[in-house]
Amino acid sequence: MIKIPPNSQWQANGKSDTFGSLYSAFNIDLQTNKGATRVSPRMLINTNNITDLGTPVAFSTFTDQNGGVQYHWAVAGGYVFRATTTSGYITAFAKDSSTGSPNGLCSSDISDMASYGKLWLVVSATDDIFRYDASSGAWNDGTSQLGTGVHMLTTYGQRFYVTGNLTSIFSFTPANYADIAVSGSNTLNLANNAYPITSISTIKTVSDGIWVFTINQSESGCWAFKWDGATANDPNFAYIIPDSSGVLSSVIKNDAPWILDNNGRLMYFNGGSFVEAPNGRLPVRNAKLLKNSLSSVNDRWIHPNGMTIVDGRIRILINNENNDNSKTIEENISSGIWEYDETIGWVHIHSLSYHASTAGSVTDYGQNRIVRAGALYSAKSPSTSASTNGTMLAGAQFYTNATATANGIFTNDSNNTLQKYGYLVTSKIFSSNIQDTWQSVYLRFKKLFSSANAIAVKYRLNDVPPMEATITWTSTSTFTTTTDISAYAVGDEVEIVQGTGGGKCAHITAILNAATSEVTLDDTFTGATGTAKARFQKWIKAGQTFSNQTSNFEKFSMQPQKNTSTWIQYKVCMQFTGDDELNDLTVINAKHE
Question: What confidence score (pLDDT) does residue 130 get?
Answer without folding.
Answer: 95
